[in-house]
Amino acid sequence: MAGHGHEEAHDETAGPKVLAVSKVSPKVRTIAVVRPSEHDVTYLEAARKGLGVTLRHFMKNFFGKRRPAEALAKGEAVEPRSRFKPAWNEIETIQYPEEKTHYPERFRGLHRLMQREDGNVRCVACMCCPTVCPANCITIIPAESDDKGVEKKPAVFEIDELRCVVCGLCVEACPCDAIRMDSGVHAKPVENRGDAIMTRELLLGLSADVGKDPQSTATQGGEGPDWRG
Amino acid sequence: MKTLYTVLDHPATKWVLLVFVLVMPLASLLTWAERRQSAMMQDRLGPNRAAPTFAPWLKLKGILHFVADAIKMISKEDFVPGNVHKGLFTLAPLLAIGPVLVAFAIIPFGPTIFPHELTSTLDPLAPTSGEGALNLADSIRLQVASFDYGLLFYFAVLTLANYGGTLAGWASYNKWALLGGLRSSSQMMSYEVAMGLSLMGCFLLVGSLEPGYIVGAGASSKLSPSNPLNWLWLWQFPALILFTTAAIAETKRAPFDIPEGEPEIIGYFVEYSGLRWGLFFLAEFIEIVFISAVITTVFFGGYQVPFLDPDGFRIGGYMAEVNGQLVSTGGSTFKLPHALVTALQIGAFGLKVILLCWFQLLVRWTLPRFRADQLMNLGWKLLLPLALAWTMLSALFKLAAMSFGWV
């Protein structure tokens, strides 16, 4: 391009050719002016080259077929297509809600509350998770449980998903595998801040929504439901 | 029926048809096409999701984005900053969009329709009167206005669009807008000269300024006007490149978008919002359509379909004078009814315009912006002398051709 002489002027070694240096002040020099060639003056060569590049991309992406979403998501190479089918194009976009990238196994999504065998909430309101939570986003109001072996249950169990920092400490802290973050669901956009607060029922129902087993395999309850007699 | 034909042939009807059936939809679609095409050129998908809430499946590859844009711009607050010159501030967007719509009047977007002969073949050898004569009454010419000064009207009217940008910049009471307005006027002035001069060769060669005549006659009277070799792109190829460059500069889009200068001054419409800004936006796209229409008309045979004469496809014909008119005749023909020929020719015009719009978008998304000095150098030191030289060369060529009897 026409302007390439400017960049070179800053570089002492690659700069313009010095024809003479002033004896009085060595900073005053006579240099050969770099003029753009006739080719560059018309911009035709550069324009032709650039149009060629963009045209090639346009044709490839317009007539080609997008690689399968699974391959794109996993970053896998795909077989070149046969000569009689349109070639793969270079578009890497994954159409998010319809297609999803591959999430790692330990990806932390929205919380879900686990259930007992009878469908009750597994949480015993021990207050470990609100204590450890760095964002203070968990609210538990305990109540007495009908089950004598459990003692307590959460009357209110709310998580403010706007406050949650998705650190996963609540899951680590839970002694009875009652809270998990393996739903794989992102926090939904809401119009009111209050709508981002997930109640106990929502958290319990999330297992069914994402098609995961709502019951933990861990046993719970010490020596049985009425060990105190 | 007579009244109907009179109404259809009225310039106002034709203008409304042209602007609201061809130009406006095309310009609106271009706002979507530009984003999708640029995405395709950059390995992206572009906007492809807009759909009405009652029919989320109606995505149509995102075509409805222009509807969403229009609704957004219409329903936005009409904000007028303090200290602006209210009258000129309101006038500027109208000045930007008005002249372009007026200039469409000179574009022939189809052949002359003879409503009484729609189902028959327009045989050029048919007698003018008596048995078997064609009824050519009530003809509808698909050109709003055919002036002798044709394309000069376009140059004159588009110069007015210049005021839109300049006044917008001045009336906005904003330094950046003023800079944009000044840049806009200086750029328009510089490139108008080269743009006008670059077409002079074409006018010399064809011998007329009237777009309808250019399309109907072609470069030489020895060849049928529907022969692609008779279109001016071949005989005036340097003019095509010069005119396309200057015309793209006139649309004020990249690589000639220093009046807008998005990263530095935002441009003469920096204070505009909502529908007022939308008018500038739309004017830009209508200008693209218009430039494409002019290039099609002058250089690519307008509505002519290759080898399609008024009576059907013809290979190997010759030009002969029949009943005082030069018509293409002879050769092997594939006869088609007048209605079908007309439809094909209007379709060809639309297709050529769309392809040239596509090319302009390709240029816009490929080349980086010129600096102000590069812009002026290109306009004054390159395009202008080249256009002048080409005009003289064309004149010499025409002189030689005339003295040797080639045309």
Describe this structure in words.
- The complex is a heterodimer of chains A (229) and B (407).
- Chain A is an alpha+beta fold and 229 residues long.
- Chain A has a domain at 112-209: Alpha-Beta Plaits, CATH 3.30.70.3270.
- Chain A contains 7 helices and 7 strands.
- Chain A has helices at 4-10, 38-41, 44-63, 69-74, 128-132, 169-173, 200-209; strands at 18-21, 29-31, 112-113, 138-144, 152-160, 179-180, 197-198.
- The longest helix of chain A has 20 residues, at 44-63.
- Chain B is mainly alpha-helical and 407 residues long.
- Chain B has one domain.
- Chain B is built from 13 helices and 7 strands.
- In chain B, strands 3-4-7 form a 3-stranded antiparallel sheet. A two-stranded antiparallel sheet of chain B has the order 1-2. In chain B, strands 5-6 form a two-stranded antiparallel ribbon.
- In chain B, helix 3 (65-75) packs across helix 11 (274-299).
- The chains are: A alpha+beta (229), B mainly alpha (407).
- The A-B interface holds A 2-3, 41-43, 47, 50-51, 53-55, 57-58, 61-62, 89-93, 95 and B 37, 40-45, 362-363, 365-367, 371, 374, 378, 382.
Structure summary:
The complex is a heterodimer of chains A (229) and B (407). Helices cover 25% and strands 13% of the residues of chain A. Chain A has 229 residues and is of the alpha+beta class.
- What's the SSE pattern of chain A? HEEHHHEHEEHEEH
Largest sheet of chain B: 3 strands, antiparallel
Q: What class do helices, strands and sheet pairing of chain B give?
A: mainly alpha
Separate helix tally of chain B: 13
Q: Characterize the overall form of chain A.
A: elongated
What structural category do the secondary elements of chain A indicate? Answer: alpha+beta
The overall pLDDT average of chain B reads 90
Proportion of residues in β-strands of chain B: 5-15%
